[in-house]
UniProtKB/TrEMBL annotation:
Domain PNPLA: residue ranges: 93-289
GO molecular function: hydrolase activity
Family matches, as Gene3D superfamilies: Cytosolic phospholipase A2 catalytic domain
Extent of motif GXGXXG: 97-102
Name of the protein in its database record: PNPLA domain-containing protein
Alphabetical list of SUPFAM superfamilies matching this protein: FabD/lysophospholipase-like (SSF52151)
Origin: domain of life: Bacteria
Keyword match Iron: no
Organism: Rhodopila globiformis
Sequence motif GXSXG, residues: 126-130
GO BP field: lipid catabolic process
Record keywords, A-Z: Hydrolase, Lipid degradation, Lipid metabolism
List of catalytic residues: 128 (nucleophile), 273 (proton acceptor)
Amino acid sequence: MPLGRPELLSSPRAVPRRRLLALTLLPAVTGCATILRLDAPPPGVAIDLPVLGIPNARFWPDGPPEALRREAALMLARQRARSAGPLPPANFLALSGGGDNGAYGAGLITGWTATGTRPEFDIVTGISAGALIAPFAFLGPEYDPALRTVFTEVARPDILLLRHIPLALLFNVALADTSPLYRLIAQQADERMLAAIAREYARGRLLLIGTTNLDLQRPVVWNIGAIAASGHPQALGLFRRILLASASIPGAFPPVLIDVQYHGHPYQEMHVDGGAATQVFLYPPALYARNLADPHAEPRQRTVWVVRNGRLDVEGMSVNRGLFTIASRSIATLLHFSGVGDISRIFLIAQRDGLAFRLSYIGSNFTAERREPFDQAYMRALFEYGAHKMLSGEAWVEAPPATGTLRATADRAVIR
């Protein structure tokens, strides 16, 4: 990164020594490699750019549904090709975001295996923490030990490194460095996992991960199976970056840049947590699942299982008049009811399209305290709570319940 005009830097009189030293150190302090980026592709063409040359690598759920409809039809065609008779019941799993609360969904999945009733999912979708669970849930019980490890054997240093806040606010794109999280993702999302996802995609199953394209302010749904099946040498790297992007909370975690090309010129897209656009997703309302069914076949039972890695109740407390308190409380309220609205939308789509609906969430009876983000003891307790809830037969409700107000607890009180 250039520091200035060469003639100015060549003269000690032109630039005092102290100032020259500051200019010399500036790139190291600011981390200019993390701030600078290539231009985003022109908005008018960005949605049609095939990442890694894979035409169905991703979809835009807020746009026309034709591409997603073609992918769903292809999925059903593959299922029929390997089925000698009527297709078995279909099961769709939607995993929400939730940060360290993702331990709930991870425990739920492993508890589901222990009950002997866990189905093979035709479609698995994930956002943020749900995106980190999704590949394990998609690939089946064989991956339960790894899922347990990811959500019970890690602590905050295994996820992020907090920066010095004043410097981070001045010179960085985020408050934390997520290189530990990327290393964790790279350990688990390896060639073996990618090959397994490709095999399941060929069988007619979909793994979909959501991110948010900040340049376009639009949600993106990544077709991980198509990426895995492409055989592209950069497919694994893209898979890992999608998982990292989906979990990258804006401001807290650095955004992830995705390389694309247009007319031979390189560009970069900025992607962050899928929760910036939606907390949990299945398929867009414009796509009518009932229209994909074979009219000559017997009706197929279909169930959508929605896992909210968070609570549905809200907390009552006395909010002081501090700027930070008011802002953080308002953002928390916004995100909470955004998630509640996403669940309601999936429920209404299920009602319209004839899908059975099941919802699981963290109940008010879970009272373990969180001492810090990604507190290992808290995550272990939540993992066991999710597993026990499944084993006890209390995991699912058939409609979004009414929510109440609880007294704030130590682990969830707003910072004052």
